[in-house]
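help with this:

***
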Amino acid sequence: MTADSTGGRVDVAIAGASFTGLAVARALSQALGTGVRIAIVDRAPRRASPSPPPEADPRAFALSAASRNVLEALGVWTRVAAEAQPVTAIEITDSPLEAGIRPVLLTYDNHVPGSADAASWIVPNTALLAALEDALAEAPGVVWLPPDAVRGLTPVPGGMALALASGASLTAALVVAADGRRSLVREAAGISVVGWRYPQVGIVTTVAHERPHGGTAVQHFLPAGPFAILPLPGNRSCITWSEGADEARCILGLDDQAFLDEVDRRFGGRLGALTLAGPRRGWPLDMHLARRYVAPRVALVGDAAHGVHPIAGQGLNLGLRDVAALTEVVADAARLGLDIGSLAILERYERWRRLDSALSAATFDALNRLFSNDFSVARTARDFGLGLVERMPALKQFFVAEAAGLTGDVPKLLRGLSP
């Protein structure tokens, strides 16, 4: 479909070609079937397919088993599987930065309970983005508009008119905001947010190491914030850590060898000699929740709806849960011949997703505050708690099942089924 063929009116307009934006476009195209018209509005131009490698990005996602199910159902997983690393075990430590030895306080067998499948996978951002773009290129009824952004929303009979920055306009029965933490659609819909900024910066890089990681992910809780070692295919790992803002700026400004020395101090020498295998980048960390996830003919997904501390690496998993729930709600309404943009329909999506997102954000915030300090009383209490969990296999299995995203009222896509 070409941009001109929309005639200025579509069934669904998606603001933002983010990971969740691309996923929801693919999901709705599959669920709504032949004849659906979906438009993607994004500031960046669409890249050619097959997608060339995006600009170097050292980040990687820790995808849950449920998120993998979503990607399989959308025809994306086969395109990214070769670059995905299953996480078969998790180790957790809690020690000062200068500690010569970091005893492991908690270990997990990271398989879905009762299954040989890994409960999580590490996937490079660049690989997943290219796979989503390539899968979407095969989706019928999807059009990418020329680079543009939404500047305003106006209700019209049977739809919502989108005023674009270019001066063009578009009308849709449903508008999906997938345009990130500073969502223009969320603002245009009059939805406010609550949140705060952390006194931390997230630093990410990729390293190669002498010895194999064996599929084990490691979370070192250090006084300035968590330091995670996420295994990648080959003898490589993605390093993500939260550091105090001033210290992070100093670390990011170091030359390569001095920066690598700082990584090695936190790595603890566990996998032998390290070398840098990718660029380094840093991001300020914050938390936010939209006060509502829907408005008349508008639904928020991903970072437009919620932004959480990366301590548990759950940001995209929450976004894909949004995709699965919204797709199922919209598909159910379409099958019954109902208006897919009506507020009554969208409120079902909000009820399904908002509590889970709020509880997740609160939990990750509390964990960061609990572990990002070096108070002796707090350290003693949390180490006692970790040791207690270590001696309770049933509780560990429960945590693994929760992290896999397969418990509770799970939308069909999270189970790998068509909505």
User: Anything to note?
Assistant: The first strand starts at residue 9 and ends at 15.
